[in-house]
Write a structure and sequence with these properties.
This protein is an alpha/beta fold and about 500 residues long. The chain is about 40% helix and about 15% strand.
Length: about 500
């Protein structure tokens, strides 16, 4: 007799179904797991043996063979412990075989029989729902997996509870979905003294998801501004929350048992490797660009990142997805993020500051910012200079609008874009519009077109820059509740590119 149950193997953000088959046969007692299993899966033999021993269940004096089918698909991770144990228990007759075949199971076993939480509960629940099966997972993963809502999720705390549930002696109640409370944002844009132009650029960036570069002397407030960007971003929509949580679930970042509607804010250090930024390592895990999906990727000290890391950002910025190709893995992860970069104007940081003259100007600035290639710089929709703040201004009372007021305008602009792109599945915000769709929604009036053409010729704007100016102008018009793109919108959009190029 061959007993079966089901589990999953992860390929990118997808969970592929795996059939766990267990057969008992005559021969020397042994326990073998086959099916292209990695070291963690092979070690499941000892964890299952110890967990069953803790429940006073004796291992059979027979040859035990567990096959993970399809056998040519790589299997890795400790979440195979529970399905291997359930398949073995079904083969021993301690669990009804038909009940074991009706579930998808994930979970790591402790030596005393407890179930330990694992990564990937959310995509596992989706895979279970697609195949019409229930999901059994550790208790710590139940609230996360139940958020899918398309299948019943049972979350036992121990292996004995899982056995009692499947045998019908003590059925478990389905787990309830968990939703984390939104974080309390103590950082407010009103805290930033001055820098009204930078605040305006942040508002435009948040409204249309436009990439932004800030250049300014140390202490001018670049990091302070970026840290307050989440306070004006709208919460994740249900679809976006599911997409983002799938990636975070695979990375084990949903540790509090629920799904958050807050947009991710990732700020990797400039010593981050290419695998950390783009993805890779063991199992080709998602990198920072994917962890920032539907959120913000803040890269401080932008020119200090390795040149190879910076250049790998070019393709994800354009396509909104990254392909991690390795010898034994080929994973595709979404990465539609808002890139906020900050840099000093030169190595010493004080180029252009009249109070602190740079001894190597202007070559100091050219050498430093020259680490960022032209094609990569061309992908920033907004480029602004952040001037230093005078000490006298720091003593002034807080001024300007607070984050709540700005957030309402950003949300209104996002609502306009949601309605505009309702029939376009791959486009959600203005920054993603291109081709005929961009021409339809962002065609400027005669004066605006004339200005844009004249400036493009004078400053040598590329075709990419030309279209990015149109996208920014469309967002500015949305913030002003204007159905058409007019000359003032084009002028402001151009100012965020021309001023930086002229300097």
């Amino acid at each position: 007799m061959v007993a079966k149950t089901y589990t999953v193997a992860f390929e990118g953000v997808e969970a592929r179904s795996v059939e766990v088959q267990c057969a008992l046969s005559e021969g020397l007692p042994g326990f073998a797991i086959v099916g292209l299993a990695d070291k963690a899966v092979s070690e499941a033999r000892e964890r299952v043996r110890a967990a069953l021993g803790a429940l006073a269940i004796a291992m059979p004096m027979q040859k035990i063979t567990v096959n993970l089918s399809p056998a040519d698909m790589p299997k890795e991770g400790s979440h195979f412990d529970l399905p291997v144990a359930l398949a073995l228990l079904a083969a021993l007759g301690l669990v009804p075989p038909e009940r074991a075949e009706a579930v998808v199971a994930i979970g790591e076993l402790a030596l005393d029989g407890r179930l330990v939480g694992v990564a990937g509960a959310l995509p596992s629940a989706l895979a279970a729902a697609e195949n019409g099966r229930d999901l059994i997972c550790p208790k710590s993963c139940g609230a996360e997996a139940a958020w899918v809502g398309a299948t019943d999720v049972f979350a036992p705390a121990t292996l004995s509870e899982a056995i009692a549930h499947l045998s019908g002696r003590a059925p478990l109640e389905p787990a309830r979905p968990g939703l984390l409370d939104p974080p309390i944002l103590a950082r407010d844009l009103r805290d930033v003294k001055g820098q009204e132009r930078a605040k305006r650029a942040l508002e435009i960036a948040a409204a249309g998801r436009h990439h932004m570069m800030m250049i300014g002397a140390p202490g001018s407030g670049k990091s302070m501004l970026a840290a307050r960007l989440p306070s004006i971003l709208p919460p994740l929509t249900p679809t976006e929350a599911l997409e983002t949580s799938m990636i975070h679930s695979l990375s084990g970042l949903l540790g509090e048992g629920g799904i958050s509607r807050a947009r991710p804010f990732r700020e990797p250090h400039h010593t981050a490797s290419m695998a950390a930024m783009i993805g890779g390592g063991r199992g080709a895990r998602p990198g920072e660009v994917s962890l920032a999906h539907n959120g913000v990727l803040f890269m401080d000290e932008f020119p200090e990142f390795p040149r190879a890391v910076l250049e790998t950002l070019r393709q994800p910025i354009e396509t909104g997805e990254v392909v991690v190709a390795r010898a034994n893995a080929h994973m595709r992860y979404p990465c539609r993020f808002l890139l906020i970069a900050a840099a000093n104007p030169c190595k010493c940081g004080y180029l252009g500051d009249p109070a602190r003259a740079c001894s190597r100007a202007p070559t100091c600035g050219e050498d430093y910012l020259g680490k960022v290639s032209g094609p990569l710089m061309d992908r920033f929709d907004l480029r602004i200079e952040v001037p230093p703040v005078a000490f006298s201004d720091l003593d002034l009372p807080a001024s300007g609008e607070d984050s709540g007021t700005i957030a309402k305008r950003v949300q209104a602009a996002r609502d306009v874009q949601t309605a505009r792109f309702a029939g376009h599945a791959s486009v959600r915000v203005n920054a993603e519009a291109e081709g005929a769709l961009l021409e339809k929604i962002a065609t400027p009036d005669a004066q605006g077109r004339e200005m844009l053409t004249r400036m493009a010729e004078r400053f040598g704007l590329s075709a990419r820059a030309y279209h990015r100016v149109l996208r920014v102008a469309r967002t500015i018009a949305d913030l002003e509740h204007d159905a058409d793109v007019r000359q003032p919108h084009i002028a402001e959009a151009l100012s965020y590119r021309i001023s930086a190029m002229a300097s």
